Amino acid sequence: MDGPAQPVMNGPAEPQCSAKGCRADATWQLQWNNPKLHTPDYRKTWLACDDHRVTLGQFLEVRGFLREVTPFGTATDASIS
Fold this sequence. Notes:
This is Acetone carboxylase. This protein has one helix and three strands; from the N terminus they run ββαβ.
C-alpha cells in the first residue's frame, strides 16, 4: 500500500484578491454590474486586497460598472462571480 490518499485542493484555502497575479487574502468586495448586459439589481463580485482595492475600483468606476465597495470578512459574506 502507498499510504492514505492526500486531499485534493480545488482552489485557494482563503478567498484571494481578483487582481491579476495577486495571491493576497481578500479584505474588500467590489460589487458591480455592466448595465449593457445585466439588470439593474444584478451584482457581480470581485474581491480585493488592501493594495488593489483602489485600482480594481478605478477600473470598474471608469466604465460605470462599480456599484458598492464593502469590507470582506469571510467566504460566506459574498457569492464570488
